[in-house]
Each structure stands twice: as C-alpha cells, then as structure tokens.
Write a structure and sequence with these properties.
Helix content: 40-55%
Mean pLDDT: 76
Structural class: mainly alpha
Distance between the termini: 42 Å
C-alpha cells in the first residue's frame, strides 16, 4: 500500500504529466491506491489544506528560496485536480 507521501508524489506527477491513472509509474505505489486517495482527499478538502499548509511549513523550515525569478503566467496556480486528457487528432 502506498504511503501518504508516496501518494502525494503520485498525484502531483499525474497533475504535471497528464498520465492516465493506470499508467502511473510503480514508484508511486499501486495506481488504484493513489487514485483512491486523490478521490477521497479532493472530496473532503484535504487536497486544498495540503496546498495551503505545505508551502508555509517549508518556508518556516528555510526550505523555500524567495527570489526575483518569475514563472510563466501559463503555469497558473497549482491544483490537485487532474490535468485534462490530451486531444488526439485523427489523420
């Protein structure tokens, strides 16, 4: 069974890459476990709390480097919602 940290990493990997749940790399644990945690955490608000608390703790621990680097506007806010499936064109 995937640990919580492993599940979070798997969820974030899926958000970043748009990979289908069943194609999630094994290093994140069983895909069904990661999916189930994502589903439960999204429904009960845990995902949003993780996004609010996580950066604050990292900053307090000195793990965040604040600088003048900017991120492209296209990056947008971080979300625990899955990325949309890519559009496939028919040839």
């Amino acid at each position: 069974m995937a640990g919580s940290r492993q599940a979070i990493d798997g969820i974030l990997h899926r958000v970043r890459t748009g990979v289908q749940w069943h194609d999630l790399p094994e290093r994140f644990g069983p895909w069904k476990t990661v999916y189930e945690r994502h589903r439960l955490w999204s429904a009960d608000g845990t995902s949003e709390r993780l996004l609010q608390v996580g950066p604050g703790r990292a900053d307090a621990a000195g793990e965040v480097e604040w600088g003048s680097r900017s991120t492209p506007a296209s990056c947008g806010p971080i979300s625990m919602r899955p990325a949309p499936a890519p559009i496939r064109r028919r040839h």
